[in-house]
Amino acid sequence: MEPARAVRAPRASAGEFAIETHGLTKVFGKQRAVDGVDLAVPRGTVFGFLGPNGSGKTTTIRMLLGLAAATSGEIRLLDGAMPKDARAVLPRVGALVEGPAIYPFLSGRANLQRFDAADRHTSPATRNARVDAALERVGLSHAAKKRAHAYSLGMKQRLGIANALLAPRDLLILDEPTNGLDPQGTREVRNLIKSLSDDGTTIFVSSHLLAEVEQMCTRIAVMSAGQLVAQGTLDELRSAGTARVRITTPDHADAHRVLTGLGLVPEIHGRDDVITAELSVPGLQPETVNAALVRADVRVRGLEASGASLEDRFVALTGEGFDVAG
Amino acid sequence: MLQADRSLGLTLVVSEITVLFRRLRTWAMIGALALIPILIAVVVRVSSDGAASGRGPAFLDSITQNGLFVSLTALTVAIPLFLPLTIGVVAGDTIAGEANLGTLRYLLVAPAGRVRLLLVKYAGAALFCFVATLTVVVTGAVIGALLFPVGPVTLLSGDTVGIPGYFGRLLLLALYVTVSLMGLSAIGLFISTLTTIPVGAMAATAALAAVSQILGALPQLEWLHPWLFTHYWLGFGDLLRQPIVWNSFADNVLLQLGYIAVFGALAYGRFSTKDILS
Questions:
Q1: Which of A187, A244, B26, B29 is the most exposed place for a label (fewest CB within 10 A)?
Q2: What pLDDT was estimated at residue A53?
Q3: pLDDT of residue A10
Q4: Which residue has the higher pLDDT, A301 or B97?
């Protein structure tokens, strides 16, 4: 399922992963906010970092970027160890961490110039051009001269994303990038991420919105209460949950027999012409079930395969309800 | 990019100064400081009936004879309260202000470098000290020249200097006061690394200036006085002698350097390992 993409030639010392952590742990007082996280984000992927609010995503990101020190564990970002090699690594990383931050009394453009000036590797000669290009890319050119305190939440969010794009980056770490955006803005951000990814940038997107991650990412990791509870490609995660088939047939007794023959455990619900079964046999596809039914002359009125929804899987992994992990 | 690597990254200093002076707040404080000499000069001019009472701030009585004394009077008034207050605001805001806006995390991720950011922030505060002092001095000279006769100035030693010589002294004075405020700026920088609430850091810094001056006024604590960062604040009289006596200038520099070293180290110790969670 991995879409073919133009992968930029790896840098001289490029490892396999853009982000790699081992046993990453952060303890605040008695609380283990992040607990033994082993992340592995392959280069060139759009990687979704999922988890409910308070599950330790942002704390993990803060440690990745050297804003907070890990209590224990190791971090490799691009080709360096964090926070030791921050000076060499961070100029190649663009980040949006826990929402945008602005100087309200400066214009949008002046805000970006300020952040660009903070990086001593950037060239002052190209600053204005790069700032304008970043503003253009997020659709803020028209408001560039406006003071940022007059920006809407969505505009601030765009400014935050523009800040991550001030220089060519090898890695983008975007914490809840579509927060506060309208549906159109959300779509623009998705397209932006896609086009950046096509250029070979590795993109690490944290979100608590499943649907969003499902649309953008090829790989995901799921956090819950400070721990990494799952990591892999979307398909791997989906297939870890079980798909179901729902068959509508007048011959439900025959259907029951066929399904049992395939090793499934059919259930008959309410209406006696509907029969469902979990596809609990590894490798068994819905079309195989259909073929078996047809071979047995079972008259099928309808067959519906419901893939394991990522949502079910997510809820299974992180628990249900509104309780914020604390 | 390699060529940019070699640059010192002075653009951040330029950026810091730009941001500082694009804030309305900074100009409001400079405006307030400029009001001090204007207020003094106007009041003296309006009520000037020649009755020099010998009371009030130093140099006040000399203003009617020579408008150039407005600067000195205004400095004497501004040093104990208004200058430390504004420096408290700027120095207290350095790190805590960025933390409060959340911009601190983006500066550090850029990466600005923590030590570099501290140095740049301190440089910005130091520049503000100089601008603030110069504002008082220059406004005083201008309003004095407008409202009163101006002529050669009689120094504390009885010698007389011409107007250009006097302006040289004023510039020296501004430097002296700026140096005097360097220790307070370092304290403010340190306090600013302790909190994400800038108002708290500002108030604490300004309050410390007051506490230090109160301690300096208690004769029972005379042993402590030479160690207070406010000890030489009003000791600029030596610059108004002929020849200039440099002792207090040198002692002041040494004392302020001591404060910069101690609180700079504390700020570094705190900030270099601090978790940025704002």
A1: A187
A2: 84
A3: 42
A4: B97
- Which residue from A68, A90, A118 is facing B12, i.e. has the nearest CB? A118
Residue A103 — left, alpha, or beta (φ > 0 → left; ψ -120 to 50 → alpha)? beta
The helix/strand/coil state of A11 is coil
Collapsing DSSP to helix, strand or coil, B113 comes out as coil
CATH topology of domain A242-307: Alpha-Beta Plaits (3.30.70)
DSSP helix/strand/coil, A247: strand
At which residue do the structure tokens 């003071």 appear? A147
Q: What residue has token string 């570094």? A: B268
A101 touching chain B per CB within 8 A:
yes
Q: What is the pLDDT of residue A325?
A: 47
Binary contact (A98, B102; C-beta < 8 A)? yes
Tell me which residues of chain A, numbers 112 to 141, contact chain B at a CB-CB cutoff of 8 Å: 113-124
The answer to whether domain A17-238 has CATH 1.10.238.10 is no
Residues A161/A192, Cβ–Cβ less than 8 Å:
yes
- Distance (Å, whole) CA B163 – CA B127: 26
Please answer yes or no on whether B109 and A93 come within 8 Å at the CB atom.
yes
Contact list in B for residue A104 (CB cut-off 8 A) is 101
Residues of chain A with pLDDT under 70: 1-14, 239-241, 270-272, 307-309, 320-326
Which residue in B12, B109, B112 is closest to A67 by CB distance?
Answer: B109
Helix, coil or strand: residue A236: helix
CB contact under 8 A, A62 and B275: yes
Is pLDDT larger for residue B59 or for residue B30?
B30
Instruction: Compute the nearest-CA separation of A187 from chain B (Å).
Output: 25
| Whether the bond into B84 is cis, omega within 30 of 0 | no
Q: Which residue has the higher pLDDT, B47 or A135?
A: A135
Domain range annotation of chain A: 17-238, 242-307
**How far is it, in rounded angstroms, from Cα B229 to Cα B212?**
7
What is the value of ipTM here, to two decimals?
Answer: 0.88
Q: Is A95 on the interface with B (CB under 8 A)?
A: yes
Q: With CB atoms and an 8 Å threshold, state whether B22 touches A69.
A: no
